[in-house]
Structures are given as C-alpha cells and as structure tokens.
Amino acid sequence: MIYSKYMLKIGLKNKLNFIPLLLPMIIMLFLMMMNTQAMKNASFVANLNQDIQIMHTAVGNQTDILATDSSLSKEDEQVITESNSILANNIRLNEQAISFAEAGKWTEALTIQLNLMEQNELRHVEANIPASEDFKKYLYMNYASYKELSRLNAEPQQDGLEMKGANYVYRMMDSIFPVVFMICLVALISNMVNASIIEGIDIEKLFPESPIKFQLRKIMVLTLFGLFFYVLFLAGTFALSSALNGVGTFQYPINIYDGVFDQTKPLINVVLKAGILQCLSLFFVISCVYFVSLLAKNGLITLFVSTVVLLGAVLLTGQIAPMAKYLHFLPTTYVNAIRVVNNQLAFENNNPSITFSNGVWVLLLASLLVIFMILAIKVQSRRQEMLMN
Fold it and tell me: Which residue, of 52, 135, 355, 381, has the fewest CB within 10 Å?
C-alpha cells in the first residue's frame, strides 16, 4: 500500500507529468476552436447557402445563353428552360429547408433534403449515370444518416467538425485517443514504472512481499491511473463541448461500413463498445510499457522504445497491404477502436475478422501474456537474489 501511494504521488505530483496530463485537453480545446471557425462555412445551413449560390449562378448563365445564342435549336432551348425550372424549384426548396433549420425544425428541413436527394443524385446513380465510388459511398451514407436524423429531429453534425457534446466525445475517441492520448499515456507510465530506481537502487527489492502479489498490485495501480486519465479526458471533453454547444443526442446515427452504406448505429452503442476496447487497449499498453522498462531499466529508453513500437504499430495499421489479412491478430489494431466498431478498418482492409468481439479477446490475451512475462522476470530475479544471499 505504501509503495502504491508512492507511485500515485509520482504520477500526480511530478511537475513534468502535467505536460502529458494536460496535452490532450489542450489539443481538444484547440480543435474545438478550429471547428468553431470552420463550421461558419461548413454547417448544414452554410452548405445549403453555397448550393443556392451555385444554382443561382447556373440559372443566370443559362438565361444569358438563351438570350444571346441565336444558334440554339428549339430542343436546346426547351432543355435549358426545363433545367432552369428545376433549378428554381430546388432553390425554393433549399430556402425552405434553411428556414426550417434556423427554426430548429430539423425533421422538416431534412425531409426536404431527402426528397431532393431522391429526385436528383440517387435517381442518377440508380440510372447508372457514371459516378465515382467515393461519391456513391458519400451519397448513401448521407442519405441513411439524414433519414435517422429526420426521425430524431436532430441537427446534422459535419463529419470531422462535430461540436455537440456527445458527437465531440466520439470525434476525440476517434482522432485523439489512438495517437496523442497514447503518447501521453506512455510518457506518464514510463515515468511511474521507473520511479522505483533511486540512485541506481531498485527499492522494490526492499519489500518482502511475494513478487507475484506485489507486481499484480503495481499493475493494478498503473491501470487505475491510466483509467483515471482516460475518464478525465473524456469527461472534460463532454463537459466543455456540452456547455458551449449543447449535449446533442446519444442516439445520433453513426454510419456503418458494410459495403452498402445504408446502415447506421446509435452513437451510444458505438461509443460504449469503443470505450471497452480503448480501456482494454490502455491495459495492454500499460503492461507493455512496464515490460519494456524491466528490460531497459532507463526512463528515456523505455519511453523511446515504447513509443516507437506501440505507436508505430498503431500508425501503420492498414498502411501495409500484405499485413491486411493478419491485422485482426494484432492488439494495436484495436487501439483504433472507433474504426473497429463502425467496421471501417474491416472494410478498408478487406478483413471481416476485425470485429469488436475479436478485439476483446486479442487485447485480453495479449495483456495477460505480457503480464505473465513480467511476473516471470520478477520471480526469476527474486530467486537469483535469494541464491546469491
């Protein structure tokens, strides 16, 4: 218990540890400010206004052609006239959608957009008019999302520029956790696990307690510290974004990458599953950093090796084509928890075995294996000391 308190003091009182403790929050605040600026030109209403401007320009250009080009045939004139009529109707409908959106009537606003998509883009795609696969994917996902948002009477959140509390937590779990948060966690744990070395002496050797029991307690304290850091980050993110922009809805539809792109799941389901994977990822990363520290016996070396090996593996997930079919065996794959739960990693790497349930098993087994190696090293070290004495 005394040593556990000592470790917590190292984690919470060392001034250098405030840098990795606060860095994720600072980055979260910076991204929120950037999103606030970007949303002025990328919100639902802003995008509709841009579409209206484009359509007004198109109508003006086509009207000029009708007035100035005497070589047009009657058929050409009829086509342009009908096109202008369709554009004028679309402008009117978009203006109605803007009015509804500004009044908070999202069901009505999104119903108009769904009807326009059915009459235009979806009809063209279904008629086999050439379109890129990325455009089709975006169209189907947008349509599925708008259908569910219309039912919920909820405001659409621009992908990557989420502002509401629930949605912003989802974005931070997807973009900040796999790299920035993990780097900070590795830095914190590296400092804590090497705190037992004082002037070249390992003070753990002074405790007569069974090495297995002692090390399990130490790993538990490290894990609890990591979970505290994780909860603090997510709670701070949710509280701040909710206070500034509203809570949003935990039923917000999240698109699922299933090849058809017409399925969504409630945000709460995705976040809860991703949260489980991320907590298990913390357990795995903490165990690995501790294991590296036993071999390195130096804080800087532990930090460097852990960062390169663990974070390098996370960043390279899905980037090396020959490894795609083996990704479901790698625990670092599941650090990208959001992309696992929404099936994006499985879809992009053509590996249907990258699933939530497989992630739970892989992370648990990998963590237990690392802990077994830690215990083996400590038990062997204790035996050698007893023989020498």
Answer: 135
